[in-house]
């Protein structure tokens, strides 16, 4: 019944052209199926890089992505910090050993 391509990550229908996504939004909004919320916007998927429809306003989705990215970079910074401290510690240890060895 549905021959449209779907995203491997989100399971959402893939649109390759913004115009096609916009047309789909207008079609759904003008005649929403029973119990289905209106599709308000399309966005670029972070998983497949194509376009999907969303019930969320576009701005909100961008904020969500922004928070996700911030979280990610925060984790990376923490990791870098830990690695650096560990290297410093090992460096000190080696130097101490070297000094006391003489
Ligand atoms: Zn996708």
Beta-strand content bin: 5-15%
Count of individual beta strands: 2
Radius of gyration: 25 Å
What are the low-pLDDT stretches, counting only 5+ consecutive residues below 50?
none
How does the major sheet shape up?
A: 2 strands, antiparallel
Number of domains: 2
Small-molecule components bound = zinc ion
* Average pLDDT metric: 82
* Classification by helices and strands: mainly alpha
Task: List the total number of helices.
Answer: 2
Question: What's the helix-strand series?
Answer: HEEH
- Terminus-to-terminus distance: 80 Å
Shape: rod-shaped
Strand order of the largest sheet: 1-2
Q: Helix fraction?
A: 40-55%
Spell out the blueprint of helices and strands.
Elements lengths: L17 H13 L10 E4 L6 E4 L3 H43 L2
Antiparallel strand pairs: 1-2
This protein binds zinc ion (ZN).
Describe this structure in words.
- This protein has 102 residues and is mainly α.
- The protein has two domains: 1-56, no CATH class; 59-102.
- It is 55% helix and 8% strand.
- It has a two-stranded antiparallel sheet with strand order 1-2.
- Strand 1 (41-44) and strand 2 form a beta hairpin.
- Zinc ion (ZN) binds next to loops.
